[in-house]
Automatic annotation (TrEMBL):
GO terms for molecular function: hydrolase activity; metal ion binding. This is Peptidase dimerization domain protein. It comes from Phascolarctobacterium succinatutens YIT 12067. Keywords: Hydrolase, Metal-binding. It comes from the Bacteria. InterPro entries: Bact_exopeptidase_dim_dom (IPR036264), Pept_M20_glutamate_carboxypep (IPR017150), Peptidase_M20 (IPR002933), Peptidase_M20_dimer (IPR011650), Peptidase_M20A (IPR050072). The active site is at D91, E151.
Length: 387
């Protein structure tokens, strides 16, 4: 038996010994309302994690934002070159009061509670693996932990994505502890997202007395919504969803204002660049005379792409899984965005979705398989020993 194998057995055993602590921390992180809009809640989580990182020897900073949850950055070892980036987010999609409605619980080996899967479990996995590795004097690579406080809203009130991009430059590899999949897929590619609004301005009028002087902003946008959706091309890899439609005040007035919000997903940034002029043309077009439409970008989330080194990194993850006697992780491309995109924009090979495994994230039915909290922790520790 080689020394490294001995070390691994010891580390796996120590992770087993951490099980109770892991469940305790998981519960503590889930049982805080910290939706993206609840800055105080997210910042509370950030402080808690920052304190843990400090006890592990990390130098930490928080990038503070006025309206968004802070970004937490922790560094240990030589982070000037060949360092490892560990990514994640501290916010959830759930509104205040969710914790009181359905706090953390475990039933039949499944954990429930807001964000248990996406992605409090992943944070527990990362912190516990670091705790055990560092207790065994791990120093092979410098490590940067970067946790955003507003990932679920694509950082629209912060510049967290710039921090991730800047801090990732020069890294050897990045791992993101986002929602793990039950089919064992780990994510190497994610679609990009572009969210925009069109606001139409018309002219109000009384429907009984003076209907013909009205210019309906709603009618204008109904046409435009259809034009937008017609740009969807699933074969090419771009699709549009006019998911929100607002306008008008009462049924007896011609509406002078309407607004639509559209979510766009694309597999490749070039596809988005191609449709942007088309969206501008749709906005400029006039179906109802005298109306005016304004196009605005709400959020933009880059696509996560495979870069040179991604395939080798995946192989390393697969070999570590084999060593841990776990099912083989397979490469997966998914539609949902994550901060892994900004590591790949920095040119860093990145594997995403290494968190606890489960289903139905972003819903009240979200659950995570408790055993995978431990198995994924062993997997990640093994990856760190092998890389
Ligand atoms: Zn997430």
């Amino acid at each position: 038996m080689s020394d490294t194998l001995l070390d691994k057995n010891k580390i796996w055993q120590q992770i087993d010994d951490e099980k109770e602590n892991m469940l305790q921390l998981w519960q503590e992180l889930v049982n805080v309302d910290c939706g993206s809009g609840n800055k105080a809640g997210v910042d509370f989580i950030a402080q808690k994690i920052e304190a843990i990182l400090k006890t592990l020897g990390f130098a930490t900073t928080q990038v503070e934002f006025e309206k968004a949850g802070n970004t937490l950055v922790g560094k240990i070892g030589d982070t000037s070159k060949d360092f490892i980036v560990l990514l994640g987010h501290m916010d959830t999609v759930f509104k205040d009061g969710t914790v009181a409605e359905r706090p953390f619980k475990i039933v039949d080996g499944k954990a429930y509670g807001p964000g248990c899967l996406d992605m409090k479990g992943g944070i527990v996995i990362m912190l516990t693996a670091l705790k055990v590795l560092l207790a065994n004097n791990y120093s092979k690579h410098g490590i940067k932990v970067i946790l955003a406080g507003d990932e679920e809203v694509a950082h629209y009130l912060s510049n967290a994505s710039e921090t991730i991009l800047a801090e990732s430059k020069g890294a050897l590899a990045a791992f993101n502890f986002e929602t793990g999949f039950l089919d064992q897929g780990v994510v190497t590619r994610r679609k990009g997202r572009y969210e925009f609004t069109m606001e139409a301005y018309g002219r109000g009028a009384h429907v009984g007395n003076d209907p013909q002087s009205g210019r309906s902003a709603i009618i204008e946008l109904m046409h435009k919504g259809l034009d937008i959706e017609a740009l969807t091309d699933f074969d090419k890899g771009i699709n549009f969803n006019v998911g929100l439609f607002e306008g008008g005040t009462v049924s007896n007035a011609v509406p002078d204002y309407a607004k639509l919000t559209c979510d766009t997903r694309y597999t490749d940034y070039a596809l988005l660049e191609e449709v942007l002029p088309k969206l501008q043309a749709i906005a400029a077009k006039q179906y109802v005379p005298d109306t005016k439409t304004v196009l605005k970008t709400v959020t933009e989330f880059q696509s996560m792409d495979e870069v040179p080194g991604t395939a080798a990194l995946l192989q390393l993850v697969q070999e570590a899984a084999a060593e841990c006697n776990l099912p083989q992780p397979t490469a997966k491309a998914v539609g949902g965005g994550s901060d892994s995109a900004y590591a790949t924009v920095a040119g860093v090979p990145t594997i995403c979705a290494l968190g606890v495994q489960g289903v139905r994230n972003h819903t009240a039915e979200e659950f995570a398989v408790v055993d995978t909290l431990f198995s994924r922790c062993k997997l990640f520790a093994t990856i760190m020993l092998n890389i």
